[in-house]
Amino acid sequence: MEKFTTHTxxxxxxxxxxxxxxxxxxxxxxxxxxxxxxxxxxxxxWRNDPSFVLNNPVYAxxxxxxxxxxxxxxxxxxxxxxxxxxYGFKAVLSPRFGDIFRGNSGKAGLLAxxxxxxxxxxxWDHLDENPGATVTVDLESRTVRAGDGxxxxxxxxxxxxxxxxxxxxxxxxxxxTLGHEADIAAYEANRPSWKxxxxxxS
Amino acid sequence: MGxxxxxxxxxxxxxxxxxxxxxxxxxxxxxxxxxxxPQAFDGLRLAGRQVRRPDLTLxxxxxNVPTLDWDKPIADPVSRTQVETLRRNCEEFGxxxxxxxxxxxGIVHVVGPQLxxxxxGMTIVCGDSHTSTHGxxxxxxxxxxxxxxxxxxATQTLPQARPKTMAVTVNGSLPExxxxxxLILYLITQEGTGGGQGFIVEYRGQAIRExxxxxxxxxxxxxxxxxxxxxxxxxxxxxxAYLADKPEAPKGAEWDxxxxxxxxxxxxxxxxxxxxxxxxxxxxxxxVTWGTNPxxxxxxxxxxxxxxxxxxxxxxxxxxNALRYMDLEAxxxxxxxxxxxxxxxxxxNGRLEDLREAAAVIxxxxxxxxxxxxxxxxxxRVRLEAEAEGLDLVFKExxxxxxxxxxxxxxxxxxxxxxxxxxxxxxxxxxxxxRQGKGGRTHLVSVPVAAATAIRGxxxxxxxxQTVGSN
Lengths: 202, 471
What we know:
The complex is a heterodimer.
Chain A: E1 6-14, H1 21-24, H2 44-47, E2 62-67, H3 79-87, E3 91-94, H4 99-108, E4 111-114, H5 117-129, E5 134-138, E6 143-146, E7 153-156, H6 161-169, H7 173-178, H8 181-189
Chain B: H1 5-11, E1 14-16, E2 23-26, E3 29-32, H2 38-47, E4 57-60, H3 77-93, E5 96-98, H4 108-115, E6 123-126, E7 140-143, H5 146-155, E8 157-160, E9 164-171, H6 180-191, E10 199-204, H7 206-209, H8 213-221, E11 230-232, H9 237-244, H10 252-262, E12 275-280, E13 287-289, E14 297-299, H11 313-326, E15 341-344, H12 346-349, H13 352-362, E16 372-375, H14 380-388, H15 391-398, E17 401-402, E18 423-426, E19 441-444, H16 447-456, H17 462-470
Parallel strand pairs in B: 3-4, 3-6, 4-5, 6-7, 9-10, 9-12, 10-11, 15-16, 15-18, 16-17, 18-19
Antiparallel strand pairs in B: 1-2, 2-8, 13-14
């Protein structure tokens, strides 16, 4: 996984709440067996609407998505994270995320930062007034910044310490866990024999 | 201070716990299917890793399979490739697979319980958000993403931050004609799609105790729809009786040992939950959704709400968007909403008891002109058991379609979809925009409401049929 320290890119205002993962990528796109190429399915239904934000060429290079509360609820499909990443997004900001989506983001290297609802509103207004403006997401200081001068926006975002550390270091979770092999083996040795198994004992 | 049920199960699975890091939990059962696993197996191959515990892993084919001609090669080449990829991966890594044509093939959350692999006190994960279903047995069960699927395949563990605990107590008995589905839809309407976020919820109280095992699965299944990490119900005699004759349940002395342990899996009297919600069962009536998330629900006897009814600004906008998408006018009685397609099935309501309930309502009636009804058993075993009872004939005589097992019209991924603009009454779990097919409009309903709706062609409950009969 690539290290994530700070990112500055075009902010995309998605003025919607309860954006579930079926909206991020519909099930018909989930038949592939790869991790790439899902950008064509990103917000597929909304992309047919000419007024949808991503259909504005000014956001073609969008990389910081600013969404309403309850972003990424519903299905566990990590394809939703991949579709955002395949399109070019590096970070998503929302006042509240679906748990599984937030977890998937951390694993796949997409920064999901929780920000205050008022900050989302200010970012939306700023991005609508200045289409194509950039937003900076600084993971080291957990800060989001946009604009300059007296109206500049600077506020904090939340991300759990462990995910932050892993993103900053670009660490692979499985590698970390396999470092605890002895703990896992010790646990396995003490599991009761009546515990369910899908295959006969070998 | 005592412990809650979820704390007990959690603590029994901690492999490693260090301040400032998530706990590393051992996973007792990992269920996999064709859609969220191929990239995980690829990851293993790239890193030269094995499946650590194939004996705690089970695969089946459900999301992407047809429910017609299921005994022939899958027609859609992309779907076929995905299913064949699962078969190859299971072969290569030694994972037990129940493929199309096998009696244990079906929706992964129907298959685990019917085999008796889902047991109290377990940790169960699957790359599917409705894994919460298995919590009905007193297990901690939740959905995971594909990176986590790979993690569990490689290590049989998962790093997890400890969630908060919540009790949902349902006092009293559910009124006549009110089901577990109505209960959970009602609760989600009250609490909102984010109300359970960060919590493992324990459903308790008289109404929960009085539910059958299958109805308990319906409740826990939809825990994710109000954002909960997982939903659980403490195991009791109903649970043990359900498990006793299942093929993979422990036998003899092993059963006795397991049972002795399972009986300890209750929340201690002096345990404290981080949050408590109390519901009076008497307040619940047949419940349907009118909007595009499961929290946008109302009593069947009510009307389509107006955006003005909502105080919160974002709820108002969400209601406006939903009414536009659903093509509904505020103030319309829900009973007047015409439905094109009725779907009975899914991991929420595709078990034998659900099919019996639907058949009992529909027996002797016909599906309304202009309405189609799909009845899709949750697994091949459920299909065969239903056929042994003659339920398939009841459905066919009424003019409904009787299908093979799978996720079917729950998610718009296989051939069973709604056409643009088509409206469904569905026993499934999600009414998101396009969930059942691009442009499709979904009303989530209970099984009896689905069956009565099929007969009348408008959203209805069985009580409405009696009115018709007496005229």
